Structure formats: C-alpha cells, structure tokens
Amino acid sequence: MLITFILILSNLKAESILYERDSYCYAQKGETILYMDVYKRVDAKQSSPCMLFLFGGGFTVGNRRDRRYLEYFEHLLSEGIVVVAIDYRLGMVGVENEPWLYPDALEYSIKIGVEDLFDAVKYLQNNAELLSIDKDKIMVSGSSAGAIIALESDYIIRNKCGDYDNSPQEDFKFAGVISFSGGLYFFCENWESCNRCAPTLLFHGGKDWVVTPYSIVMFEEGFFGSTALIELFEKSNSDYYYCFYPELGHEVSYQSMNQEHDLISEFLHQYILDN
Fold first, then answer.
1. What is the pTM for the complete model shown?
2. 3-273 adopts what CATH topology?
C-alpha cells in the first residue's frame, strides 16, 4: 500500500520547498509489518543521496513519525537528500528496568534491529529508480537505540561479521553515519582491529546515563559509547566528527539534530554530497 502526503517546508535559507511523504511496506516478519516513510522533494533529482533514519526509545517504544525528528528531516531535505524513516522491531518490549541489565535481551534487540535495517537497505537498492535514490550514497542516522543500530550495522558491513542471512549486496557500504547518542555493542571478535568505518558524525552528552558515552566491558563483551569509539576510529584511520556536550545528558539524542544544522551540513558536504 502506498500513501502520499504533500507537505510544505518553510526553508530558512530560501523560499518554501514542496515535498511529499510516501509510505511503503518494506518487510514482514511473522505478523509484524514494517513500513518506511520516504520524504522526497517534489523537485528531487532522479538520483539523490538518501538518509535512512531509525528512531529512539530504548528498544521498547518509539515510532518513525515522532515529531521531534521532523525539523531534522526538513533540514536534510533542504540539502537535496531523500529521507527514509523506518519501523524496526522492538526487542526489549516487556523487559522491566534498564535494558543494559539484560545483555542477552539487548543483544537480541540490536540483532533484529540490524536485520530490519538490512531489509530496508535492500528495498532501497531494489527500488532506487522509483524512489529517486543514488544507491552509492545511502547513509544511515539514528537517535539513541536507533543510533546504536546504525553504528552496529556499519561495523558489521565493514568487517563482514555477525550472522545475518539478509546482508546487503557484498559491495554495499554506507556512505556516512550520523549518530545522536549512540554506541557500539560489541559481540564480534577483535573489535579493536576493525576495518575503516564510514565517515561518521557523533553527538553525545557527557552526563548521559541512558546511553553512556564511555565504555562498559564485562565478560569479554562490552558497550562502547561515542567517546570510546574515537579510539576505534583513530586506529582504523576512519573519518569522523565528534560533538561532545560535557554538561548535557540524553536530551542530546533529539535536541542536537535540530540545533546543529550547520555542523551537520558541513559534515555532509565534506564527505558525501560534494564527492
């Protein structure tokens, strides 16, 4: 089923921009139907860069149409990017207290989130012409839990690890990653010897007690927040920007995407849009 809405973006840099939002079913997992919303300018080029986006919510709540993300989507549209906001399965539903206290459930939640993202990528690859998407410039972004899935997916693709039957085409790589309060939950071997990651823009608060910007390691597994990932990026000679707010907490996961438009545009033009 395809549903189309026509909306008007009040662009601060120029005149208003007309864009549309189309909804597509991109996968079905058992009784769960997964949808994506495709935001595209009416005057979009035939082959435009694309940003996949995954919402936050601790793998328990959230939805692709959370209005806190709309200003960010509209900024990306003003840069000529097709925005694709997707559903993904929430693996921590029913788990009480903090998800970090249940590593098996957390690992499962990330795994099925990555599977759903890979299905979305394959849908975009198979329908690139219809959606006016450049298959070589597909990026991924996420907030909180969605940012964890985004970072995890790029790591898995670049290092060919993890047990996934639905991985994208072998030569596929994300053109870039933008993470708002995310991190990498490591369950692959030798994480410090990873291959070069996609150009990555990280935002994180120093007082984030929901998704730590630092590292937590137990029993040879660990979670590595944005600050901890810098070492990984340095060792793998990966390109990155890091915007760190020492006095802020998890509100960075949604506030920074609407307050740092200039930095986001600088990153996008340096590594993706002008290449």
1. 0.91
2. Rossmann fold (3.40.50)
